[in-house]
Structures are given as C-alpha cells and as structure tokens.
Write a structure and sequence with these properties.
Layout (H helix, E strand, L loop, with lengths): L3 H16 L3 E7 L5 E11 L3 E6 L2 E6 L4 E6 L1 H6 L10 E6 L3 E7 L10
Antiparallel strand pairs: 1-2, 1-7, 2-3, 3-4, 5-6, 6-7
C-alpha cells in the first residue's frame, strides 16, 4: 500500500521533472561520511530511480525501498495557513537505513529564473 506522503512526493517529483524546475539537493549518509549540497534539475525519474544533474555533478539514486518522510507541496503549505509563494515545496526521502535526501524547489523570479 502506498502512503499519502509517497503519492504526494512522487507526484511532486514528476511535476518538477516535467517543468524542469530547479531544485536544491542535499544528500547525506549516516555519520556524515558523505554529504553533498547542490542545485540541479531532475533529468530521469521512474518508480525505481531518480537522476538529478547540476553544474559539476550528476546524482543517480535508487528509489527501491525509499521512504518519503515528509512532503511539503504547495497544497500542504496552504493547508497549514502559509503562503506557498514564500515557502519552498520540499521532499525528504530516507534511502535505505543510513541515507537522507532533501529536495527543495528553488524560488523563481518574475522572469521564471531561480533566485
């Protein structure tokens, strides 16, 4: 059975891929033995894998067994009484037992370019 966070998270990932939305990527492993922080766009997405490319990096992650810990879509931001134009949509994923991925949509300027 798919959780509501997983359904909302996968839908948000699809939207970001379809619109080529720039996102902030924060990845860390247990004990901070590996960590990265960058900006990029989702280039590939299916039920089993997520690929993000940014300036100077490419990240391919297996989504097999991934758990969507929290999803902050525009709809959920509105539900808690906040303005989605002031708060980024976010997804937090737990990958395996020791890895964490946080994705956040970057704000867009009036010209459609990220700040």
């Amino acid at each position: 059975m798919t959780s509501s966070d997983e359904s909302a998270g996968r839908e948000l990932l699809q939207t970001w891929k379809r619109t080529s939305r720039p996102i902030r990527v924060q990845f860390s492993s247990s004990g901070e033995t590996f960590a990265m922080d960058g900006r990029g766009r989702i280039t590939e997405l299916d039920t089993e894998a997520l690929s993000i490319e940014g300036e100077g990096f490419g990240l391919l992650l297996s989504l097999t067994g991934a758990r969507f810990k929290s999803v902050g879509s525009a709809e959920r931001i509105l539900e808690v009484g906040l303005d989605p134009s002031r708060y980024s949509e976010t997804i937090e994923l737990l990958l395996g037992d020791m890895e964490r991925l946080v994705l956040a949509a970057l704000p867009e300027t009036n010209k459609g370019k990220p700040n």
